[in-house]
Amino acid sequence: MKARWDIFCSVVDNYGDIGVTWRLARQLVAEHGCGVRLWVDDLRAFERMCPQIDVSLEQQWQEGVDVRHWPCEWPATAAADVVVAAFACQLPADYMQAMAARERTPLWMNLDYLSAEDWVVGCHRLPSVKFKGVQKYFFFPGFRPGTGGLLREAGLLQQRQAFQEDANAQRQFLQTLGVFPVADARLISLFAYENAGLGGWLDVLSTDGRATHLLVPEGRILGDVQRWLGEEGLTAGAVHQRGALTVQVLPFVRQGQYDQLLWCCELNAVRGEDSFVRAQWAGRPLLWHIYRQDEDIHLDKLDAFLELYTAALSPTAKEAVVAFWQAWNTEGDMARPWKMLQAHWPELNGHAQNWCLEQALQADLATALVQFYESWI
Ligand code: TRH
């Protein structure tokens, strides 16, 4: 009998919490035959990326996953064989009792935040707290060997490659979003938090010798886009041109469609955790807007990733990437680093593909979790 899993997701903000757990839950079902209950406290955030969700239901099946609304009043329920608390969320007290009451205690893990910092390797799979004999473990995703790896569905890179080799498929996909770029336009996707540095970048794109078509899914960066355009109330479908730059607002789409959008673009500006990983699987240069944390500790995480990601680049290409990412994350001047980046584009493009292949050598996160469970029992 395959193991039963309970995954707990508390939506703190935005879409990363549900984005990661929904992806993991589906993969455990589809590729490992696990029985998965996904407990989510905010079905509205879930609905954005999975529109078939019925937010009024306490229980529903979605793509083989038993989706449960995580209610304030916890229902009496038996604990599963494997329990994943995503991003250090606190489990319901009654559920913890149910874990302790099992004849064979469950494997209890905290699925941590993604970081490229080197201490992660030493902490991955270490025991954490204990509750009445039930041991909790840290489980860290990561980029380095010795971490839990990254979420990556089987066949993802082959699918991506076939799509990127098929200009027709890309054109048709973009058309479904209402996107009709002019010939030879540079496609850039822009998913980011509010960023005062955006204007400087858009200025340089609008005066560039090559046309750019900027695709902006509805979200937090839209205010800055509107300010730069001098337009108000932009919603999905809006298209505005300023010089060489066309700005188009897109609807928030399903995760699978968002992947395809990333695969179509020459550069993807992404944020948080899950879109950041998906942009790496796209095999194209990326720009990461890291989630801001108190006392700027996110900047250490940013540096750690940059150190790893740029290790194989030539010194000047590395300098360009570092300058570009740091400017974006400190709301600095984007014009100069953007120009530096252009001078290294072929190298950066090849590097993005190599990085993707290198990361894919590690077991994916879902497989690593299953392997941990198998070695634990
Ligand atoms: O939304 P994010 O900023 O999420 C998170 C949360 O803020 C979280 O609390 C924090 O800890 C974490 O960042 C670091 O960014 P992220 O992680 O990229 O999640 C976005 C999800 O939305 C991802 O699964 C991709 C998905 N998505 C779509 O499905 N369709 C879309 O159109 C877009 C733009 C995104």
Q: Biggest β-sheet: count, sense, barrel?
A: 8 strands, mixed
Gyration radius, rounded: 21 Å
The CATH topology of the largest domain is what? Rossmann fold
Enumerate the distinct ligands.
2'-deoxy-thymidine-beta-L-rhamnose
Helix-strand pattern: EHEHEEEHEHEEHHEHEHEEHEHEHHHHH
CATH class of the largest domain: Alpha Beta
Q: What structural class results from the helix and strand content?
A: alpha/beta
Overall number of domains: 2
Look at the structure and name the CATH superfamily of the largest domain: Glycogen Phosphorylase B
Explain how this protein is built.
An eight-stranded mixed beta sheet has the order 3-4-2-1-5-6-8-7. A six-stranded mixed beta sheet has the order 11-12-10-9-13-14, with helices on both faces. The longest helix is centred in the N-terminal third of the chain and has 17 residues. By secondary structure, the chain is of the alpha/beta class. The chain is globular, with a radius of gyration of 21 Å. Helices cover 41% and strands 19% of the residues. It has 15 helices and 14 strands. It folds into two domains: 161 residues, 3-Layer(aba) Sandwich (Rossmann fold); 206 residues, Rossmann fold (3-Layer(aba) Sandwich).
